[in-house]
Amino acid sequence: MGITLKYIKPLFYWMPELYLVLATLLYWVSTATLLNPVAFVLLILLTSQLVFNKKGLGLFLGSVLVLLNLYLFLALFSDIVASPSFTISVQKFLLVGGIFLVLNLIMAVKLLLKHIDLHPQSNKILG
């Protein structure tokens, strides 16, 4: 009858990867080029992370995506500072770009935290 927690819980677990795949597809479509190697490599890595769920790949992807989104924040603010006036189109650009980048950054951090072992088990070598 209704959607139970049994079906919702896996969606929350896979939410960072699914969102980042959709965001990469949106980026690829918005560039209007058929051959986009950056988007292609990101899609391959994200879908392989969805299929294999490897810790090392998750850490690598999370780190790269956090750094990439921080770079894109700098690019967004550079474009806004370079504009001669703060018009409606610049405000829309700031709002849409800012929301998109904040969501990307949140999901990249969630992906990174998902694969970081926050409580490592101690290994006792000498008794």
What's the structural blueprint in terms of helices and strands?
Blueprint: H1 5-31, H2 37-52, H3 55-82, H4 88-115
Helix pairs in contact: 1-2, 1-4, 3-4
Q: Which series of helices and strands comes N to C?
A: HHHH
* Structural class assignment: mainly alpha
Q: Please estimate the helix content.
A: over 70%
Number of separate strands: 0
Strand content: under 5%
* Total discrete domains: 1
Mean pLDDT: 90
- Work out the radius of gyration: 18 Å
Distance between the termini: 56 Å
Largest sheet: none
Shape category? globular
Detail the poorly predicted runs.
none
Count helical runs.
4
Describe this protein's structure.
The protein is mostly helical and 127 residues long. It has one domain. The chain is built from 4 helices and no strands. Helix 1 runs antiparallel to helix 2, helix 1 crosses helix 4 and helix 3 runs antiparallel to helix 4. The longest helix is centred in the middle third of the chain and has 28 residues. The radius of gyration is 18 Å and the shape is globular.
